[in-house]
Amino acid sequence: MRFQRLMILGLLMVGVFFWGQAPKLIQAQSPTATPMPDMSTDMSKDMLSLIHDVRVATTQYHDLDTATKGGYGKFLDCFTHGPDMGMGQHYVNGDLAGDDKLDPLKPEALVYEPLGDGKMTLVAFEYLMFADKWDPNNTGKAAPSLFGQEFHLKTNIPQTPPVWTLHIWLWSHNPDGLFADYNPLIVCPADQPIVDMSKA
Are the CB atoms for 109 and 184 separated by under 8 Å? Predict the structure, then answer.
């Protein structure tokens, strides 16, 4: 009897464990599950609300045709940084990139991951501010910022003057962080041209 009771208790514990893990296993195996970025627990409610608003305002751009009709055009090729870090294919809105304003609901660039079947998956946004627009008199003005994050000044992007940039990976998980420049999970197709920023 004691042996039977121990067997029943053991089976119950295993059942409870797998019941708790089931939602995670189902989500991981679901082909339609949308990867969600990790939101820092340090973010304020206002910041989380703003990020939610950005997702709502930009969800339409999962459809690349909608993005191109909205003024976003392909910029160069798929960006990487060496063999282990990817960024993706940028589509830039020239009107937004050329002004002197930053609007979190209107990113200057959309970033897509090219898939092997030719489809494009929206993974991130990039906010852009040309250096001569931000500080036309070269007074040493502090870097622009959004979401409490300072932009990074890039001076080696091909065919591009010095520009302040900030990525936000709202539609793809990035183990390096929500605002990192590159993402080790993003891959540019091997049979397509790339822009390797490690060689720029």
Answer: no
Dist CA 122 CA 2 (whole Å):
58
Would you give per-residue pLDDT tens digits along the chain (200 residues)? 444 443 433 433 434 333 444 333 333 333 333 444 555 547 899 999 999 999 999 999 999 999 999 999 999 999 999 999 999 999 999 999 999 999 999 999 999 999 978 899 999 999 999 999 999 999 999 999 999 999 999 999 999 999 999 999 999 999 999 999 999 999 999 899 999 999 98
How far apart, in whole angstroms, are the C-alpha atoms of residue 105 and residue 117? 30
CA distance 157 to 47: 30
Residue 110: phi, psi to the nearest 5? Answer: -105, 140
Take residue 164 and report the two structure tokens written for it. 């302040």
CA proximity to 161, closest of 126, 132, 127: 132
158: Cβ contacts below 8 Å, ≥ 6 apart: 76, 195, 200
Nearest to 54 by CA among 121, 147, 128, 174: 147
46 close to 181: Cβ distance less than 8 angstroms: no
Can you count the helices (H) and strands (E) in the chain?
A: 5, 9
Q: E-assigned strands of 12-114? A: 72-81, 85-93, 109-114
3-state secondary structure of 54: helix
